[in-house]
Specification:
Length: 95
């Protein structure tokens, strides 16, 4: 297979596994330490780097692959989830 096809599929699989891991930690993990929040923050930072890299190395080139839409959507979804969680925590802190 072509490297241009394998890379977005591999990134998508890693993101789906990380979503499953975050769900498992949130559901069955220790409730005293917010491990899922810390891991989701780190994952969203890596997703920001992924979005920047995809913008410069994939969408600035002439040969664009539409398969990159899947990891981009998963990255945006993770970033939105983290922003929503932090905004809910911020609102609840001052209520």
């Amino acid at each position: 297979m072509n490297k241009n096809i394998i890379l977005p599929i591999l990134i998508s699989i890693i993101q789906i596994i990380s979503f499953g891991h975050l769900y498992y930690v949130n559901k069955y993990g220790n409730s005293h330490i917010p491990i899922a929040l810390i891991e989701s923050t780190i994952l969203s930072l890596f997703n920001v780097l992924l979005l920047i890299g995809v913008y410069f190395f994939v969408y600035k080139t002439e040969h664009k692959i539409e398969l990159w839409v899947i990891p981009i959507c998963l990255a945006i979804l993770m970033i939105l989830i983290v922003l929503i969680v932090y905004s809910i925590m911020f609102i609840n802190k001052y209520n």
